[in-house]
Design goal:
This protein has 367 residues and is mainly beta. It contains no helices and 28 strands. Strand 22 and strand 23 form a beta hairpin.
Length: 367
Amino acid sequence: MRRLGFFVTCAFAVTLAVGFAQGPEGGSGPYRVLERAKVGGEGGWDYIYADSAARRLYIPRGATPQGVHARLTVFDLDTLAPVGEIDGAGGHGTAVDPKSHHGFVSGNPIAMFDTKTMKMIKTIDPGQASPDGILFDSYREHVYVFSHPTKDATVIDARTGAVAGTVALGGTPEEGIADGKGTVYVVMQDMPGSVTVVDAKAMKATAHYPLGDIGRCNGLALDARHGVLFAACAASGNPPAQPAQPKMVVLSAADGKILATLDMPGGSDGAVFNPSTDEAFATLGNGKLFVVKEKSPTSVDIEQVLDTMNGARTITLDAKTGHIFTMADERAPAPATPPPAPPAGGRGRGFFRPAIPGSFTIVEVGK
């Protein structure tokens, strides 16, 4: 899916699934932007990751033609002040095992580092895989690194850094989420889309939940207590013949039954669920935060659509404070001659607009 620095521009539309109520838009809701920290730094970016226990915020940055190295940038989760960088640990996303204090970055090669010393431990060869999304599962202290072209996940022992195996996923994987009890769920980016269910102990896929005619899904959140999944998808119907209306699909984690479908006002590249508030969140590339309130396991409201920052498309949750973090940079005007259309599965041309130097910003959202 991801090209570092990619973002989406989608038309605004919020409509309603049967049995669901439309919530407030813009700033008329419980959430607001608390902080915009312009931290700067050059290079592409993709995922953002909050280590709530150690109070660290991780953002991998890519290399630039001007000679800036790929690296992992680390910030204080409470103040957003820079803490340090790990050179050579660039890539797409980060996952941390709080028990072993080992962190991993899904690049090529995969980087393994010590979260206390912020020093590299080693690199791991992903073989034919092309690392993109990444997930830590506490059930067996395993890290899952997802790959588009090989349609699988490389599983790494977080304690040793050894490759434990590979899980065939049956589709193009995006965000994954674990219930901590032995099941991992991974949303597929294909059109139409689906969610793959993985037995963490056996390290094999056990089920595939189809999402009907909805696809290009990038975000997946889980309410583990009630067994509800929230898949954030960029298209429905039959694009390009039909408009690519983004959707959030709410489905049962037990059997994949679709409980509801909500129109989103833009394409999403990430989703999270806060069990303390029973709310699901999806960041949209057009600078919106989509907030859904779970009233019961089968009933939700669109609670708020909050303006964040254009291009702020990936998301992480600080479980301690309940704050949401996303990020983006400012872009120069589009060139007079539009670039070629992106390949199938691509999500727009916005990333061709050059970033304004020093404009990279972390956005913090809370009540």
